[in-house]
Amino acid sequence: MFLKQIRLLLLLLMLMPVGRLLAAGDTLSISIFIQDVVSVDDVFVPSDYALHPPYPNPFNPDVNLVVDIPQTATTRISILNLRGQEVAILENRQLAPGRYDYQWRASGQPSGIYFARIRAGQFETSEKISLLK
Questions:
Q1: String of DSSP letters for 12-63
Q2: Are 99 and 46 in contact (CB under 8 A)?
Q3: Which in 77, 80, 96, 132 has the greatest CB count within 10 A?
Q4: Tens digits of per-residue pLDDT, 42-52?
Q5: CA dihedral 29, 34, 35, 40 (to 10 degrees)
Q6: What is the residue-wise DSSP string for 78-106?
Q7: CATH code for the part of the protein at 50-131
Q8: Looking at residue 40, what is its pLDDT?
Q9: Edge-to-edge strand order for the sheet containing 98-105?
Q10: What is the structure's pLDDT at 43?
Q11: C-alpha to C-alpha distance for 46 and 108, rounded to whole angstroms
């Protein structure tokens, strides 16, 4: 409702000739009061575990990972090389439900294919990522 009122006010101000609104030397002041407050109950809680597609992909040197955790779980987020060796651990602790953002800086790693992996509770998945230098 609030956004509709703002849009209507802005539309009226844009359509009305300035000469009819203000006389020479006059000023226009608009005050907007926002009364909506986001409560803790409105925070996003995912319904399923997910490792969203990493971006950018291919990357150099940073890649972003977004992970959804629907329930409290011990979570390990790591990066593996093609041999299956962990080259980085981004998270290894108990996480509360929510969406988490991570960034891996691979500046010390050679170009190639890597895998971003998440293990949380009984859930496990991975996404292929390509480092191009």
A1: HHHHS-HHHH--TT--------------GGGS---SS-EEPPPBSSSBSSEE
A2: yes
A3: 77
A4: 578 899 999 99
A5: -160
A6: EEE-TTS-EEEEEEEEEE-SEEEEEEEE-
A7: 2.60.40.3080
A8: 44
A9: 50-51, 62-69, 98-105
A10: 74
A11: 34
